[in-house]
Amino acid sequence: MKTICTTCPYCGVGCGVLANVDDAGTVKIKGHPTHPANLGRLCSKGSALGETFDPEGRLLAPQIGTRSAGWDEALDLVADRFSQTIAEHGPDSVAFYVSGQLLTEDYYVANKLMKGYIGSANIDTNSRLCMASTVAGHKRAFGTDTVPGVYEDLEEADLIVLVGSNLAWCHPVLYQRIVAAKKARPQMKVVNIDPRRTATCDIADLHLPLAPGSDVALFNRLLSEIHQQGCVDSAFVGAHVEGFEDALNAASGEDASATGLNHHDLTTFLNWWIGTEKTVTVFSQGVNQSQQGTDKVNAILNCHLATGRIGKPGCGPFSVTGQPNAMGGREVGGLANMLACHLDIENETHRDVVQGFWKSPTMPEQAGLKAVDLFEAVGRGEIKALWIMCTNPVVSLPDADKVKAAIEGCDFVVVSDLSADTDTAKIADVVLPATGWGEKDGTVTNSERMISRQRAILPPAGQARHDWDIMSDVGRRMGWADAFAYSAPADIFREYAELSGLASALNRDFDISGLQSLSDAEFEALEPTRWPITANAPKGSQRMFADGQFFTPSSRGRMLAVHQNATTKAYGETLRLNTGRIRDQWHTMTRTAKSPRLSTHMAEPYLEIHPDDAKNNGIRDADLVRVQSAEGEAVLRALITDRVQKGVPFAPIHWTSEYASDGRISTVVPSVTDPVSGQPDSKAARVTVSPMSPAWYGFAVSQKGLTPNASYWATARHSRGWRAELAGMDAPQDWQAYARDLFDLQDAEITSVIDAERGVVRIAFHENGCVIAALFCSPEPVSVSRSWAAGRMGDETSSSILAGRPGADQPDPGAIVCACFNVGVNTIIDAIVQKDLISVDQIGIALEAGSNCGSCRPELAALLVNGRTRLAAE
Ligand SMILES: Nc1nc2c(c(=O)[nH]1)N[C@H]1C(S)=C(S)[C@@H](COP(=O)(O)OP(=O)(O)OC[C@H]3O[C@@H](n4cnc5c(=O)[nH]c(N)nc54)[C@H](O)[C@@H]3O)O[C@H]1N2
Ligand SMILES: Nc1nc2c(c(=O)[nH]1)N[C@H]1C(S)=C(S)[C@@H](COP(=O)(O)OP(=O)(O)OC[C@H]3O[C@@H](n4cnc5c(=O)[nH]c(N)nc54)[C@H](O)[C@@H]3O)O[C@H]1N2
Ligand code: SF4
Ligand SMILES: [Mo]
């Protein structure tokens, strides 16, 4: 048994993980008790990391077309095709599209190869879809892309304002830290600003369901109110801020009517914010992913600069980052308009310093193409060789069908991934097997500038190689042997740290020069450390801007004049589709969907839609809904709820063609971007909805796999195999033959109840006296206890499986809420009612639910209200 300290590969909280590996290679995961980000906590996704090592679907050797190839052949091909294309069409005819999930060392090599050696700035990253507006907003206000705060500020604050941030599901451990802090200091208040009523509302003292897109109007109103109430910190503004008058004038010219908020809620918010010195404003995708994302960021920063609430304990603006190394990618210059170490590509001195340090033959003088433009250039045939690493753009970019067509039409596409089955890898010319989390080694930076080590737990799967190593090898094959002679991540890290010292001399914030002489052993042992890390501060730093000095030419923080644009306007007859995340899946599901535990919470792509919109469009609960826009179409299960506003339905982003027939929601999202940052607005697609009206609906469970053949399908793992939702426009003639094909069980014994006339079908398959598969169909959405039926796979045959639910003597757990202990909604409500439970902690004592990772606690709290209401009615 050995224990390895590493870092979670999912969200930007950056939790420390302890992995225990036994001699058989079995990995047990727990939270690192002393990592400063989580102090032992992990959320549902972090806790289930051990389940994602499943070798099924891993790509084990390079693939050229559909055949396996050796590394030499594959990398020669990549190097030759890139070199040829550059020779014929110039450096800007090639591009890299990379990811905030690469490690810093991978990212550094990608950036050096493209900018310093190929000589193009056509390298952009999925952070363009994620953090670009924050980067642009920070640079406008601070001169650099600096996150000033630290996590402790969230615990020390008296008011936390969450803007467009579903922290309970997307940054669960940070959320739990706030929950704990609020419990210890009940005077702490939380405001949640989100058009949707999310799980995060559970801790909110005030929820502001603003009109989508109206954040600038809200924060402009706040700025003018700060001024009117005489709460501007004039000493701070006088000494450290510029642009105050212009920003205030712009703000004062606007009212808050665009927000649609009622007077009482709005006034409460304004008074709380203005009256509370220790205020932290947290923001993420509800702010960034917008046509005026950058203005939204600056509207927020303006209020903090005007009140001097920045760089001090318990207050400040706080951008929480999405991906594990979103920050590292920004630091290393992964965006098409940046250079390494927060240097700017358009600044000649900066370019010279980087080129001189790299001793590189070339350096682009202008920014490269940003993600959306980059794929448009691919579509026009201007980019002829493209290398996609660690991201799945056929699912995650807006106008996803167009992106897919662009990739299909590109002369030469390389994808580095863990699997050859992702929607993007499937259409590449060459797929290179990269090592994944648990096999990789290097560093990541979390939301609070903390650099932590990811360490290998297991050897690489098959022939998989590290991303930095694959790229360095291609760099050498393209003729730059010395520049890419790295033999380990530590070599790359030291070089990067040295360059940061030169950047710092140019008045840049990012400086880790204190680590430039680390030995290999010291790199191996590197403890989580927050940058800047310099000779004077070798153990790292706390808050930035404590001295009121910013990185602008005048050293003053800049307030910006921003105006609410017209994007909050209702779309008339059409709906405004909001998209985002769910608790237990990570992005395009390539890893989290391997975990049965994580697949129980929400097993199918869905559309949250307001009851009025459902009624107006003839949609009933659990119907299948076609969601259509000018760009494309998706089919999702209707979930009718007033958690969303009328006119503003919501759909999750996770489903791909691997797990659903028509679940890729970005097919309907237009590629509208923020003019400053180039970040797409993923939260405002103009759509219509209509019921799909299939002839039959089905639910299938099986112990082995299944190959869904139906107009609509969605599959998911469960602890005993697979499950699928199905629907068809025409009913099969022979249901038994259909079921045999579905499960590929041509000879297994069958029991069935088939009423062909009514379309009610129940078929079970048996082997050696055990149930191994079952199919339930009906003309209406099938009413079967899913978790119960899935739990019967492999059990001894009994007649009850055809009933689709447990007998009266057996409880039906209902849909799973607590994934750690597999506790269903019915079990929880029954316990609340029968045992008269009054708190989430009591539910934990009675059922264990919510007592491990805690990710389901907001839902338990909601059920508590539900159960208590039922109790009161009885
Ligand atoms: N479980 C899970 N966690 C994750 C991820 C994951 O895939 N799964 N991904 C990670 C990544 S990369 C990221 S970027 C983060 C994202 O984390 P979040 O930003 O919290 O996630 P989202 O769900 O995309 O969007 C947040 C909220 O913005 C709201 N919103 C939409 N429009 C507006 C608006 O105009 N104004 C305001 N104020 N709010 C609006 C949405 O209703 C939504 O609830 O999550 C990270 N954590
Ligand atoms: N409509 C809509 N679209 C969105 C968003 C939204 O809110 N709404 N959010 C956007 C945001 S914020 C983000 S961050 C993106 C995320 O979107 P993507 O980056 O496309 O999503 P992932 O599933 O994280 O893709 C990572 C890929 O890398 C592979 N991989 C994992 N580890 C490694 C590794 O170490 N090396 C290599 N080479 N490959 C690896 C995985 O198998 C997977 O295929 O989606 C964006 N798209
Ligand atoms: S909060 Fe969860 S997903 Fe995010 S880093 Fe921590 S354990 Fe991983
Ligand atoms: Mo993200």
From TrEMBL:
Keywords: 4Fe-4S, Iron, Iron-sulfur, Metal-binding, Molybdenum, Nitrate assimilation, Oxidoreductase. Its cofactor is [4Fe-4S] cluster; Mo-bis(molybdopterin guanine dinucleotide). GO terms for biological process: cellular respiration; nitrate assimilation. One of its GO terms (cellular component) is membrane. It holds the Pfam family Fer2_BFD. One of its GO terms (molecular function) is molybdopterin cofactor binding. Residues 1-57 form the 4Fe-4S Mo/W bis-MGD-type domain. Gene3D superfamilies: 2.40.40.20, 3.40.50.740, ADC-like domains, BFD-like [2Fe-2S]-binding domain, Dimethylsulfoxide Reductase, domain 2. Its EC number is 1.7.99.4. It is an enzyme of class 1 (oxidoreductase). PANTHER family: NADPH-FE(3+) OXIDOREDUCTASE SUBUNIT ALPHA, RESPIRATORY NITRATE REDUCTASE. Belongs to the prokaryotic molybdopterin-containing oxidoreductase family. NasA/NapA/NarB subfamily. This is Nitrate reductase. It comes from Shimia thalassica. The lineage of its organism: Bacteria, Pseudomonadati, Pseudomonadota, Alphaproteobacteria, Rhodobacterales.
